[in-house]
Write a structure and sequence with these properties.
The structure is a single chain. The chain has a single domain (about 30-155), classed as Nuclear Transport Factor 2, Chain: A, CATH 3.10.450. The protein is about 40% helix and about 40% strand. The chain has helices at about 1-25, 30-55, 60, 85-90, and strands at about 65-75, 80-85, 105-110, 115-125, 125-140, 140-155. Strand 4 (about 115-125) and strand 5 (about 125-140) form a beta hairpin. The N and C termini lie far apart (about 90 Å).
Length: about 160
Amino acid sequence: MRRANLALIILTCCVFALAVSGASSLQQTPAAAQQSGEEAAVRAAIEHYFRGHATGDGENHKKVFHPDSKLFFIRDGKLTQVTSADYIARAPGKPAEDEAKRKRHIESIDITGNAAVVKLVLDYPSAKLTDYMSMLKVDGEWRIVNKIFYAEPKQQPRP
């Protein structure tokens, strides 16, 4: 009888220990909670960038680009740069004619402290663009401080 009771007590303790360890592994640590909050804030900032593309309204881009930010890319085999102000000024003020066919998504986000790198894919009928955004949390807001990108033209079907 005592062995049965002892076995039951040991079994109960083991089940309790497993339940407690499983529950604690499901709880988010304060650092993980802060990280997920920062990721949500980065995603919200990138939504301004996406909205700027979707609407053609540069005001959306102004909300996410830091005023001192620059864009770097290769054009005709040469390193080219423009200021974000010049980039924003080129916004057409209306959506592109093929906007309904355009897709944009965040491929990845890597955050360390107040710095983040975000990889975006903009899949348009005529090209697939990959953007790499360097972001910093400035005065409590995530802002793009640098953008590099690659545009891969798509072959258009012949009529």
